[in-house]
Structures are given as structure tokens and as C-alpha cells.
Amino acid sequence: MALSSFCEAVKLDHLLFKLMVYLRLFNQDPNLELSDHKHCRLGKWYLMPETQQIYQHDRAFAQLDDPHRICHESASHALHQAQHKDWSAVVASLDSMETASLKVNQVLQALAHRGN
Asked: pLDDT tens digits, residue range 91-109?
């Protein structure tokens, strides 16, 4: 039950993260700072030695790091590209962010169901 609740909270975190990226783009906010995939709530949990030990053989858990990293990196790239008004690159980065975010949500859903 705790893992399921955590996964739902992290999904909400990622939704808010993406919303912040879109708001910065919409408002042409020059702030380029974003948390990376190691320093958000999910990244901190994922990298904890205790978590690594518990889930080291879990296939879904092993699939979490790459899309999570890509989501954060793509969001950062979108903000940087917007500063140069490279809109096609911004759209491509946002597409990459959304695709990776969808994969993160799928993996979290799989983990949450295993925790029940």
C-alpha cells in the first residue's frame, strides 16, 4: 500500500514538473534551472541503497532510470532551446519529454501493482 501511494505521489510530481516547464515556455521565463533525475523525489528514492537492494531483481524497477533521465533532460533541453527561439527543437524536446514521462508512468503503475 505504501509503494502504491508513493507511486501515485511521484506521478503527480512529474505532472507538476511538466506543467512548470510548459508555464516557463509559455511565459518565456529565462529561468533554466530544473531538478535533474537524481534530485527529484523519484530519483532520490530510486538511488537509495535500500531501494536498490529491495528492487534489484525487479524488471519494472530496472526500466525506470532511462525514461526518468530522458524526461528531465528533454525538459531542460526544451527550456534552453527556447532561449534561442529554436521552436522546432523545443517541440522535439517536449515530445521526447512526454514520451519518456509516459514510460515513467507505465513503470510506476507496474511497480504500484506489485506492491499491492
From this structure: 999 999 999 999 999 999 9
- The answer to whether residue 26 sits within a structural domain is no
Is residue 23 situated within a structural domain?
no
* Full residue range of the structural domain in which residue 102 is found: 2-13+38-115
Intra-chain end-to-end CA distance of the chain, in Å: 6
pLDDT 10s digits, 49-69: 999 998 888 898 999 999 999
Model pTM? 0.91
- The residues, ordered by sequence, that sit 6+ positions from 32 with a Cβ below 8 Å of its Cβ are 76, 79, 80, 83
Task: Report if residue 109 sits inside a domain.
Answer: yes
Any idea how long the chain is? 116
Residue 100 domain-assigned (yes or no)? yes
Where on the phi/psi map is residue 29: left (φ > 0), alpha (ψ -120 to 50), or beta? beta
Total structural domains within the chain: 1
Where are the alpha helices (H) located in the chain, listed in sequence order? 2-26, 41-47, 49-55, 59-62, 65-83, 87-115
Q: How far is CA 79 from the centre of its chain?
A: 15
